[in-house]
Amino acid sequence: MATAPVPADPEADPRVKAVFDDIRRTRRTDFVNNLWRALAFDPTLLERTWADVKALMASPTQIDPLTKEMVYIAVSIANACGYCVHSHTAAARAKGMTDAQHAELLALVALAARTNHLATGLQVPLDPAFDTAQGQR
Amino acid sequence: MATAPVPADPEADPRVKAVFDDIRRTRRTDFVNNLWRALAFDPTLLERTWADVKALMASPTQIDPLTKEMVYIAVSIANACGYCVHSHTAAARAKGMTDAQHAELLALVALAARTNHLATGLQVPLDPAFDTAQGQR
Amino acid sequence: MATAPVPADPEADPRVKAVFDDIRRTRRTDFVNNLWRALAFDPTLLERTWADVKALMASPTQIDPLTKEMVYIAVSIANACGYCVHSHTAAARAKGMTDAQHAELLALVALAARTNHLATGLQVPLDPAFDTAQGQR
Amino acid sequence: MATAPVPADPEADPRVKAVFDDIRRTRRTDFVNNLWRALAFDPTLLERTWADVKALMASPTQIDPLTKEMVYIAVSIANACGYCVHSHTAAARAKGMTDAQHAELLALVALAARTNHLATGLQVPLDPAFDTAQGQR
Amino acid sequence: MATAPVPADPEADPRVKAVFDDIRRTRRTDFVNNLWRALAFDPTLLERTWADVKALMASPTQIDPLTKEMVYIAVSIANACGYCVHSHTAAARAKGMTDAQHAELLALVALAARTNHLATGLQVPLDPAFDTAQGQR
Amino acid sequence: MATAPVPADPEADPRVKAVFDDIRRTRRTDFVNNLWRALAFDPTLLERTWADVKALMASPTQIDPLTKEMVYIAVSIANACGYCVHSHTAAARAKGMTDAQHAELLALVALAARTNHLATGLQVPLDPAFDTAQGQR
Questions:
Q1: CB contact under 8 A, B82 and F44
Q2: ipTM of this complex > 0.90?
Q3: Chain F residue with minimum CA distance to B87
Q4: Residues of C near B (CB-CB distance < 8 A)?
Q5: Do E71 and C72 touch (CB under 8 A)?
Q6: pTM of the model
Q7: Distance CA B114, CA D86 (A)
Q8: Where are the domains of chain F?
Q9: What average pLDDT values come out for chain B (137 residues) when binned by 10 residues?
Q10: Would you identify the CATH topology of the domain E11-59?
Q11: Nearest to B114 by CA among F80, D108, A42
């Protein structure tokens, strides 16, 4: 399936080739997954998306790499993006997520969804203690 | 706001009191936040919800406590549960989340939402390499 | 809060007055809740929305009235519409929903959210037995 | 996949045939897409759905046809409805959406998702200036 | 598709076998659907999920079995969980849901989504009459 | 409400001041709305978010300014972001959206939500004609 034309030879476009090369170099693999191939129909969209993914996911930051992948999986599940769940689960496994951690992550996402639905169903009023605006610095 | 009656003195019910006491003991605080007060209208619902939250969030597990709170925040944002975003952000801060980590978590959730919407908008087909069912053990 | 102008005297417009009168007559109450007042800024939108709500919610159909309100609450929770959760919980109570049924409904919605997130997180393949297209009539 | 029985010859039912004929006539094509075939298991549901789609999408209104399809795509992406994303992207292309406009639409939907998640994550309070109820007419 | 390894012979694990046997006994069928097979990669997650589904869905409670399945379908649609929509529609049919009831359920879920989006789009303020916290007991 | 500390004088930080000044210059107004004030707790997050919003929303692109605001509103409604619905509805009005266009936009978003839920509820299979991957260029 696809909603935009996927070029037969996306790397014929030098801007696309530059991004794909950077993906391969950054990730140390020849594999360029379908999201990037799908985005290749518009080099500007491809470049901007990769720049931000690279800055946050492929560079050392405040949060460790495996935690970042777990957060990514969590958001992707809640947003019901099947492709993203698959690709970031694969990435998390490549970064060392064990079966037991994967199972706990899913249990955690499911628990959060459960209390999200309870809190929304009850329309629970905010505790003043949780409001950062109360105690401004 | 609330959709269920919040009893004036919820702890008059011994089952509710037992849960509130366990929340206070487990979290080492006298504060019982509004979600639990709202759930007190049905002691069974209160007991079951707390049992699962305690098992996963207040016990040592495979994933460290701060990461668990970050995943919880991420799911709550994607499910648009304002109460949950507030309460778990407060919990994450209590467990040591810095402003810089909080900012990065939000940037990460926002990045995931962005690529979720791109992948769903493009209806990207799954790469066989991401399908665990391909390489069964 | 509001994003559209709410007329001070919406019933000055005869089309709005006709809908409000029908709401009062159908529901046997003088109370016209804020959703309808908010929709009054465009009589066509008001008329069409009320016509469909009336046809499905205020007329005898295949599904009994309380079940319909419970389904409505469930969808509203999952779509994170606070106003709708409030208004349909009030409507369900007016149609006889007890505290125990309300608690069970919330437990059920939360359970569904939990398995929804598990199934999406696992990307479970469809069992052929569940596919109606398999056994066409 | 399907959850309702798809009749082998849906147009054997005269009500279904009338709707299908109107779809063909309105859209000037012989092609009736699967959503309508799936809805054919209940002629009333089919008739009501088509009546509203026709009124808003296939008639001249305040918003031009291509903008309407773009809004439709945006909502379908955010609601994670793959079928709808596909069918309305095809419709938008048929109405003249270029590759560049498609790419920008996706970038825009992704940007909105990103700031939606930031605003929800930060629980930003409403600016009084944005509240239409403040300055009633 | 799948994101976790599905064991070739899941019942070789006695904890998994115990759950599968209970599923077969409770549902009076030999069929164990894919969600449970997917969860088998972690026996704890499998056991806890089945325990709660059994308690709420396979036992007599305040809400009748068919209504429970309908609510489950409604939440699954709003959360865009295709697998769940399929499996619970099959379950609802097995519990007696007719084509006419199915069509009405879908119309109802669609109506709720429509007014959810209208109320969210208008940011309708809550009517004090709907706030249970106003009139505490 | 807020989950991150809002500095009393955010513009004491020169990076924040630079962004706020650019917002004022770009939008030709002294008003800096709360989203930007909330993001000021992390200058990097503030800078990156504004850079992308400016590039897409405050510059001439393929899609006209009012259409962009309408798409933004649509996504914000479907993602249940109340703040975003409010702020982008105000922006759309400032760019000329009439009451009639606003009403039609809401009707359109509600119609899309309705057919989204129907298509997801029916699990409609994709028509090959809608799959761009079929007819590659």
A1: no
A2: yes
A3: F3
A4: 80, 82, 85-86, 89-90, 99-100, 102-103, 106-107, 110, 117, 125
A5: no
A6: 0.96
A7: 19
A8: 10-59, 62-122
A9: 88 98 96 97 97 95 96 98 98 96 98 98 95 58
A10: AhpD-like (1.20.1290)
A11: D108
